[in-house]
Amino acid sequence: MSKVHVIDLDSGNLQSIRNVVEYLGYEVYIVKRWDDPELKLANRLLLPGVGNFGHFLHNMRNSGFEEPIRAYIRSGKPIMGICVGLQAFFKSSEEAPGVDGLGLFDMSLTRFDDTSKPVPEIGWNTIKLTPQSFFGLDPSQSYYFDHSYAAIVAPEHDKERELQCKGWQFATTKYGDERFIAAIMKDNVFATQFHPEKSGKAGLRVIELFIKQEHPLPKVLEPHQTNFSSDYSNYGLTRRVIACLDVRTDDNGELVVTKGHQYDVREGSDVGTKGKVRNLGHPAALAQAYYDQGADAITFMNITSFRHSPLEDTGMIDVLKSAARTVFVPLVVGGGIKDTLDKETGEMIPALKIASKYFMSGADKVSIASDAVKASQRYYELGGLTDGKSSIEMISKAYGSQAVVVSIDPKRVYVNEPQDTVNKTIKTKYPNEQGQDWCWYMCTIDGGRKSTNIGVWEVLKACEALGAGEILLNCMDKDGTNSGYDIELLKLAKEAVKIPIIASSGAGKPDHFREAFIETTVDACLAAGMFHNGSYTVRDVKDHLSLNGLKVRVEQ
Ligand code: 1PR
Fold first, then answer.
1. Which positions fall inside the Glutamine amidotransferase domain (predicted)?
2. Mean pLDDT, all residues of the chain
3. Superfamily of domain covering 3-235
4. DSSP E strands: which ranges in 227-292?
């Protein structure tokens, strides 16, 4: 087996799949048309999907792929579906009433219950095999999940037995109190709800064994691993540790990773003087280093995109392409995702097109900051309604809400009493010099350079309604200070929305991560400076969390 065929249904994870298969040493053939004669020659077929179930199936039908895929399956040759690729093999989904799946598995998907946990499920979870392993699936490993709908088998305990009787082999995962199908196999059809292409070495192994059609026995679980896989203190997920790379050109015109002190990236800005742009290393090389240390996701922020459009910024695209070839955890890219005027042609380029360029280069998610604040203001101007035109809505419609992160850059504003602002206030434990102990968090735009009149609570609510999948919550007062996260801000944000929140700004030592995870219900913690200056590695943070009883992903 030297060639692997991949069906192209405009899925956001297509490039990531291609990267993994090439990394494993196989040739990739992307099948773009249903009548491509290559499809008949395929011996291993991958069906990647992300986003909306209905959108994916309509796309499959409208592009004429349904019957060729069914014919391939009837031929008995191996096929593997990934994420929405798995969901398409089921009967239907609550996400798209009235749209039929391929019906290979006689079961329907439903939305996770969000009354007591964040939805979507974003993060690394363990699996339970029923009854035995296939394609190297390993209960001692964690796999990366990113979805709101699932083939839920619990609490109907008999369901699992019923499915086994049908000859299905499957692995399940528990998110909160809901158990669902994480991977499934019947005859030549194999599929995973998780993203093996983004699950580090454990995921690469699953794809490789599918290509080789091998089923080695998994390792026997050590007693401590059994405890680890039954820890539901974070709904079953590990505590995610994320490394962030702020990227811009330095004074020599080189694209570098930099780091600000309260967003000022020039040397000496922390002591009141101004020097050169801090150069902390090459973006792709640092991304690789953090991946090797065990980072659970990497974010790239194009921090001068308010000045230069990403359309002109081919350097960032090159960085992303290079990192995506060897870094197999989710890659998030932000900066300049908004409708943009192309200066050369005078044409308005929609945010969706800019995002697509990043997805095609290997990004799994895009992060929107300034434009999300503007979209929130518009949302309230429309009386809490959406007009479908914002970048958040357009991108989440095309690529799924899991692909849209909203990055927020708030700053504390003190007031005498809550009535002094229309925005949501908190009573803080840290009054300002004037003794004011009420404050709200004003959302800034253009990398903290411009103030607005809207608060973080209001932007969070609006962005959730517009379809954002996750929030990256910075804090201008804390950025680069190494003094710990703003716990009050995190608590406020977690009260506002159900979608997951990534804490950012202020981490200076591993214990700051523990503090954020214990004192708040935040879903992930991100840091930049403490990793870039070499004080600590990602592994140091994970060791510290683990010693303090918090489950983390460690590659075996
Ligand atoms: O507005 O959609 O074009 O996006 C611009 C993006 O670039 C935003 O997400 C904004 O946060 C980011 N950005 C713009 N200017 C800066 C700057 O620093 N001058 N970075 C900037 C903001 C915040 C985080 C940082 C954390 C952790 N930096 O990226 O990594 O605060 O830092 P720490 O652990 O060292 O404290 P758009």
1. 6-208
2. 93
3. Class I glutamine amidotransferase (GATase) domain (3.40.50.880)
4. 240-249, 255-258
